[in-house]
Design brief:
Blueprint: E1 9-12, H1 18-29, H2 43-55, E2 60-64, E3 70-77, E4 91-98, H3 107-121, E5 126-132, H4 136-144, E6 148-159, E7 162-172
Parallel strand pairs: 4-5
Antiparallel strand pairs: 1-2, 2-3, 3-4, 5-7, 6-7
The structure holds coenzyme A.
Coenzyme A is lined by residues 28, 34, 96-98, 103-109, 131, 135-138, 140-141, 144.
Length: 177
């Protein structure tokens, strides 16, 4: 069934969404194309991750259908404080995905805008991500939002007999230069 994006709601994730978020992540992961995961982490790990992101005030939004099931997510993870490795609190790693019927309808754009508002609120200066070179749709979206390519890891993944390069991208605020 195709998703009706006009009726989708983009909102901050809640702890109660953890299982639905995990199911969504699992479906996208099992496509074996776009994510490093090929299946979701355990329910306990997903709940812990969601809870800690909320407690730390990090940007994490979900797209939900009319039944309030999660059909997509976008989050920016910042490495937890570590006094032995200081200097990374200004940078976060973006991850996102949508169930296939919900793609190409502007929801990725809406989720990313919401996450960037959250990132600005907490003063993040650098948002980075890694994307497979074969994922040209996602790369187009990231460019549209001002991400620039910083480098490429050649043949970084070998899965199901196919190599894929990993493109490293980042968006700086204020912009470089
Ligand atoms: C990547 C993803 C989150 C984008 O969300 P989306 O809702 O499909 O994207 P949007 O509809 O908001 O499109 C925004 C822009 O992205 C680009 N884009 C999206 N899908 C595209 C496609 N299949 N081909 C080319 N460009 C595409 C376009 O530039 C588009 O802008 P436009 O509408 O002005 O042309 C979504 O397609 C997805 O979940 N893909 C599978 C999982 C994934 O790749 N996750 C990211 C891993 S790094």
């Amino acid at each position: 069934m195709r998703g009706d994006a006009a009726k989708a709601v983009i909102r901050p994730i809640r702890e109660a969404d953890a299982d639905s978020y995990r199911a969504c992540l699992d479906t996208v992961a099992r496509e074996r194309l776009y994510l490093a995961f090929t299946e979701a982490p355990s329910a306990a790990e997903a709940r812990f991750f969601v809870r800690s992101m909320i407690q730390r005030g990090l940007p994490f939004v979900v797209a939900c259908d009319e039944a309030d099931a999660v059909v997509g997510w976008c989050n920016i993870h910042v490495a937890p404080d570590n006094p032995l490795r200081p200097g990374f609190a200004h940078a976060g790693m973006l991850g996102m995905g949508l169930l296939e019927p919900w793609r190409g309808k502007g929801l990725g754009t809406r989720m990313m805008q919401a996450c960037f508002e959250g990132a600005a609120r907490i003063g993040l200066e650098r948002i980075e991500l890694q994307v497979y070179a074969s994922n040209t749709g996602a790369i187009a979206l990231y460019r549209k939002f001002g991400f620039v390519t910083e480098g490429t890891k050649i043949r970084a993944r070998k899965l199901d007999g196919h190599y894929d390069d990993i493109v490293i991208m980042a968006r700086l605020r204020p912009p470089q230069g």
